[in-house]
Design goal:
Layout lengths: L2 H15 L12 H11 L3 H28 L4 H12 L5
Amino acid sequence: MNSSDLRLEQLAVRARNAAEPPPEEVPFGFAARIIASARAGSDTSALWARLSLTALPVATVATAACLWWSSGAMSPDAQDLAQVFIQTPLFP
């Protein structure tokens, strides 16, 4: 027999005879500590609210600038259509 075949056979025998490790259990109180630490973490919703309120004026200025820039390039038909859209009430 080849030496590598002999080593593989020995490994197979050891694997068949190996005892299964006991199932690992979570330590007592571990889940409660995880939940408590998650609740104690920083509240990111306030950060997102502040970010969105800061971005709102920037988006408004950018939209107004785009409308002002494109208003000179509109044809009279497009201006009439834009007026119809502006005056049409939006219903949910």
